[in-house]
Design a protein that fits this description.
2 copies of one chain form a homodimer.
Chain A: E1 8-13, E2 27-42, H1 50-62, E3 67-76, H2 82-102, E4 112-119, H3 126-138, H4 145-152, E5 160-168, E6 171-180, E7 193-198, H5 204-217, E8 222-223, E9 233-238, H6 251-271, E10 279-287, H7 290-302, H8 304-311, H9 317-325, E11 337-340, E12 343-347, E13 350-351, H10 356-360, E14 368-374, E15 380-387, H11 391-398
Parallel strand pairs in A: 3-4, 7-9, 8-15, 10-14
Antiparallel strand pairs in A: 1-2, 2-3, 2-9, 5-6, 6-7, 10-15, 11-12, 11-14, 12-13
């Protein structure tokens, strides 16, 4: 069981945001007893939901002062809701901070970061918020990490948690993270939400930079369908409650642990991608530069033809090679090598003479498929985790009237 | 019935390239009695098949001299086949030109343009070529436009032909075109092949420019799955056999007719896209420039979430808006307007108050769905035809082992 880092308490409640009277929580809070340094990575979509805009403002304003928590709601995305949506977002923070103050916590609404997922275009039901907030505040400290992960879920098949412990010179430091993935609710697009809590003490600028790099290496290296939502948000809070100040030469260790936690969560997102039956572990090397390698990895990982081939357990080197060839990257086609599950499929401009069908029949039944693409240009390298494209994906995303 | 332009004769034969002993032709030739001005537009994939490379060389060398015909084979793509593939391609042209010379035609193999579709990575079976070429030559002049279109087909559901007649000052001019579309054969990617024949007399440089513009406005404005093949090729031959020299002020009329023929063929390609049940007619206006408009159109048209929504007859403005917002184009989200089948879905940063479900239930049952996206930036404009994403697509492209 993953332990919650020191100085964090979790809360959850059932607000019935979906109007379905389900027996599950859809409102939750990760709360830090002391102000925590906050980092955030958000959707680059032009249509950013109200909670994304408010979170960005609160993080920017937090500076050395820090924030106290992240407030999640599932069922109502509060996206494309205009000025009224922003007012509702701020009102929800007011309600929760007031309830926490009533419980003896000294916290202002500006110290909370909102995160929403669910139906877009509809206004949040503030009566439901008002009814559920007391139960949320009352539950503070009684909810597990998995309980938090469950309350964030939409159509996720399983709750996603990850953690690491790190023995530093000053003592033990903990990291624990939760995420929700590419679940789809009508009429909506997939939203990714994630939070990592850490009880180490880290300089804000150092934490920001470290978090950005860790996110780039993990969450920004996954592909379910290439669509990004209006609400995608990734939060990192470091509250120093362990009493351990991370020394400069220990920062790489912390970054490694943070990257590992985010990496595990990102992997789970792809594995639980809509209808996913496979996770391609794409690794491109030998490109002229890292950017070129990334373009090739993304073009292959996003290719509908490659994705359907993996779903069909088809060692279809032709689709992989053709996707690489249209990535908009210049390379020598004769130098390209493609290896799937350890079996070299393509070399010297031609398929190899191996019996792919026989060699790959069993490996292609696995969930995890390593796909290595080697160019002959330079030292550029990139990794990407990509799901396949299945009947399940089409069913989940088209099941509206049919 | 579409008439074959003057001075063109068509031929077809069954070479059994698929080794399936089917009762259908898979080898065909469009032949011009006189040298014709040739234009070509080819795949930009780094992995270009041998026939693409040879066609490009022959067109480049043809200049004022012209070419005599285009030779199609279906079942063997001759892609990723190395030096041997190139030799086989040239050998196939030698066989056909020799057979034509035996029949009294003065033609060299350099005057023929090869076009292949089918399984990639495998070498062509030259014994099958040798066996079928006499029948091909013997059929010259006895094959209809539809017969040519049928012989090019892979998994296309129907043969694709289009034509126009044009009364110019010098007399009547005809255009007739054929295409094969996004058919999939294992292990392969979709290949698009098309030819337009015209019996007007046009300057080579004028014909080249006109053909490039017409292709950009039509074939380069369709999306089935965003994957481009190693063999995509589009040919245009103008042989002057009508005796009509197009005058300068008539060139726009000819270009309009050419664009109409290519537009009809491109529409049929999308309609017959793998598993397609819908054709989105995406029209983006009000962008800062045409390039921005095209980026938005392509991001929306390629979005798996938008495509599955259309398959599910779901007026999902959220997916459309979110796709536009991640296109990498800067625009004012508040100024965006989205109209589907004439019903305005989104305006002023919010969904409109219309009852989408009631208004769009019937229109979304249609094959053709107009989708208008208006930005508030400038005069930039783009169109794109895009298919939906259905269970049929996944079945066709994953049906290998399952």
């Amino acid at each position: 069981m993953i332990q919650i880092p020191q100085g964090f308490r979790l809360a959850a409640a059932n607000a019935d945001f979906r109007n379905k009277h389900l027996d599950r929580n859809d409102l939750s809070l990760a709360f830090s007893d002391a102000p925590a340094t906050a980092a955030g990575v958000f959707t680059t979509n032009l249509f950013r939901a109200a909670p994304v805009l408010v979170s960005q403002e609160h993080i920017a304003a937090s500076g050395e002062k820090g924030v106290r928590g992240v407030l999640f709601n599932s069922g109502q995305a509060n996206a494309c809701t205009g000025e009224k949506g922003r007012e509702n977002c701020l009102l929800s923070l007011d309600m929760v901070s007031q309830a926490l103050r009533n419980a003896g916590e000294e916290v202002s609404s500006e110290e909370l970061l909102p995160a929403s997922t669910g139906v877009i275009g509809a206004q949040m039901d503030m009566d439901k918020w008002a009814a559920a907030v007391p139960a949320l505040a009352a539950s503070l400290g009684s909810v597990s990490l998995e309980g938090l992960a469950r309350a964030m879920m939409t159509t996720d098949a399983f709750p996603k948690t990850a953690g690491r412990e790190l023995a530093l010179k000053g003592g033990m430091v903990r990291l624990a993270g939760v995420a929700k993935g590419a679940g789809m609710i009508c009429p909506n697009m997939a939203t990714m939400l994630s939070l990592v809590m850490c009880d180490a003490s880290v300089e804000p600028s150092v934490w920001h930079d470290m978090f950005r790099r860790a996110a780039d290496a993990t969450f920004n290296r996954v592909s379910v369908d290439g669509d990004t939502s209006t609400n995608d948000s990734l939060y990192g809070l470091a509250n120093g409650a362990s009493g351990v100040v991370v020394e400069k030469d220990e920062l790489p260790l912390l970054e490694e642990a943070l990257t590992a936690v985010l990496g595990e969560l990102a992997y789970m997102l792809v594995k639980d991608g809509e209808g996913a039956t496979k996770v391609m572990h794409i690794h491109v090397t030998g490109a002229a530069c890292d950017e070129d390698a990334e373009k090739v990895a993304r073009t292959v990982g996003h290719s509908q033809l490659v994705k359907t081939a993996m779903f069909g357990r088809d060692p279809n080197w032709g689709r992989i090679v053709a996707a690489a060839g249209r990535a908009g990257v210049n390379f020598d086609p004769m130098a390209l090598r493609v290896t799937l599950c350890g079996v070299e499929l393509f070399r010297n401009g031609r398929p190899t003479d191996l019996d792919f069908d026989a060699l790959l029949e069993e490996p292609l039944k696995n969930m995890d498929l390593p796909l290595d693409i080697v160019l002959g240009e330079g030292e550029g390298e990139a990794r990407l985790l990509a799901s396949d494209l299945s009947h399940g994906y089409v069913s989940l995303n088209s099941d509206y009237r049919s």
